TrEMBL record:
Transmembrane stretches, start-end: 15-32, 38-58, 92-113, 119-138, 150-171, 191-216, 237-259, 271-296, 332-350, 356-380, 400-419, 425-442
InterPro entries xref list: AA-permease/SLC12A_dom (IPR004841), Amino_acid_permease_CS (IPR004840)
Span of domain Amino acid permease/ SLC12A: 14-446
Gene Ontology biological process: amino acid transport; transmembrane transport
Its membrane topology: Multi-pass membrane protein
Record's keyword terms, sorted: Amino-acid transport, Cell membrane, Membrane, Transmembrane, Transmembrane helix, Transport
Name used for this protein in its record: Amino acid permease
Protein species of origin: Paenibacillus donghaensis
Length: 458
């Protein structure tokens, strides 16, 4: 029989690069084009605001994960502080979050491949899914290695963009679109060219850009030294936000006027094509393609692990807890991949709208999960002060900052209600939560009935 415990094969370098990979994905490489169209240069402030909020979420999650050795995910945390119903809803919602996110990434794979080949989006999406499934069925160390190199490609690319941008600003390089200069940031209508409304409407895509940052927490059960590796990865998040988001956007807007960027295309590809290096755009397109594949790979990893944890708690079918000979939850991986293939179907049915729909749903569900983490942290401080007193990784500025970030998330949801692009998904998403509450109540009554019948028979 296959061992029924996950293997702690992820080393510090894996965890560090998984953390970076989680904060750099399709939301930045592709979604930033739409965000820039909405907000103009003020998008820089949107990334800063959401990035800081996510950092405090991660500090709360880090303290909670390290407060008890048995925690494997935030479903365990939700069960301890909010009860089994909250754990069930949060666990399945997190699975749904990553399904939606990975669908967006699969759709993006199809978009990027069309840069070279005039083929339907769904074909490269299906090929990518099959390859990633095969890789994920290997050991968790294989996943860690793959993410390590994927994330390294992203880091090198963004650092190169920032370095090239700085050099071109210094020499006053001229492109077909004009002179490269920092003044391009405010020279085309100011920093808030579309007013406060445009700035606020960009927050949905900015939130989506940060989804996956909590993957460090999901990997805790398979990390060799969580007490050292998790705090180290979380504490580097602010620096990564400054470098990889703010730095990259400043470089993009210095080289391009924001008005020249197409929201349907990657601004990174557009920017490198302006630099004048013939093969640069193709290279960057390859990089953003690997980024989308990386994010989808993370989606497969996280969805399979969350199903594994739900199954072990009798909140999902028992066969999802089965591990193969490589200590990988293969059944959970297969079913997650099957559901992910819907992204390829959407690419075929509604190629123009597919990316926007799934990113909106993903952002909404991730706000729920991040909100649950903050609420659990408030409960932790109130109900277990002795654990909080012994913590070596205390979240700063709590409980005040928890309430501030929760209020920000509520404001973002209200903004989505007023935006035509996001309103339909926001109004439909509650159906998912209603379904989960109904399923939990039904399953609980069934278990109670079976327990009563068993007792009576005895």
């Amino acid at each position: 029989m296959a061992p029924q415990e996950l293997k702690r094969d992820l080393q510090n370098r894996h965890v560090q690069l998984i953390a970076i990979g989680g904060t750099i994905g399709t939301g930045l490489f592709l979604g930033s084009g739409k965000a820039i169209q909405l907000a103009g240069p003020s998008i820089i402030f949107a990334y800063l605001i959401v990035g800081i909020a996510v950092f405090f979420v991660m500090r709360a999650l880090g303290e909670l994960l390290l407060s008890k050795a048995g925690y494997q995910s935030f479903t365990d945390i939700a069960e301890d502080y909010l009860g089994p119903r909250a754990a069930f809803v949060t666990g399945w919602t997190y699975w749904f979050c990553w399904i939606m996110t990975a669908m967006a990434d699969i759709i993006a794979v199809g978009v990027y491949v069309q840069y070279w080949f005039d083929i339907p989006q769904w074909i490269p999406a299906v090929i990518c899914l099959i390859i990633l499934l095969g890789l994920n069925l290997l050991t968790v160390k294989s996943f860690g290695e793959l993410e390590f190199w994927f994330a390294l490609i992203k880091v090198v690319t963004i650092l190169a963009l920032i370095a090239i941008g700085a050099f071109l600003v210094v020499i006053g390089f001229k492109t077909d679109a004009g002179t490269v200069a920092l003044s391009n940031i405010w020279a085309h209508g100011g920093v808030f060219p579309n007013g406060i409304s445009g700035f606020l409407l960009s927050f949905q895509m900015v939130v989506f850009a940060f989804v996956g940052v909590e993957l460090v927490g999901v990997s805790a059960a398979e990390t060799s030294n969580p007490e050292k590796n998790i705090p180290s990865a979380i504490n580097k998040i602010p620096l990564r936000i400054l470098f990889f988001y703010v730095g990259a956007i400043i470089a993009l807007l210095s080289i391009n006027a924001w008005t020249e960027l197409n929201p349907a295309e990657s601004p990174f590809v557009k920017t490198f094509s302006l630099v004048g290096i013939p093969i640069a755009a193709g290279i960057i397109n390859f990089v953003v393609l690997t980024s989308a594949a990386s994010a989808c790979n993370s989606g497969m990893f996280s969805t399979s692990r969350i199903l594994y944890n739900l199954s072990r708690k009798d909140q999902a079918p028992s066969h999802f807890a089965k591990l193969n000979k490589n200590h990988v939850p293969s059944n959970a991986l297969f079913i997650s991949t099957l559901v992910l293939s819907v992204g390829a179907l959407l690419s075929r049915l509604i190629p123009e709208q597919a990316f926007g729909i799934v990113t909106t749903i993903s952002a909404i569900c991730f706000i729920w999960v991040w909100g649950v983490v903050l609420i659990c942290h408030l409960r932790y401080k109130k109900t277990k002060p002795e654990l909080q007193a012994k913590s070596k990784f205390k979240a700063p500025f709590t409980p005040f900052i928890n309430y501030v970030v929760l209020a920000l998330f509520a404001i973002i949801l209200i903004i989505m209600l007023f935006a035509e692009d996001t309103r339909p998904a926001l109004l439909l998403t509650p159906l998912w939560f209603i379904l989960l509450f109904v399923l939990y109540s039904t399953n609980r009554r069934k278990r109670e009935r079976n327990s009563t019948e068993s007792t009576t028979a005895t």
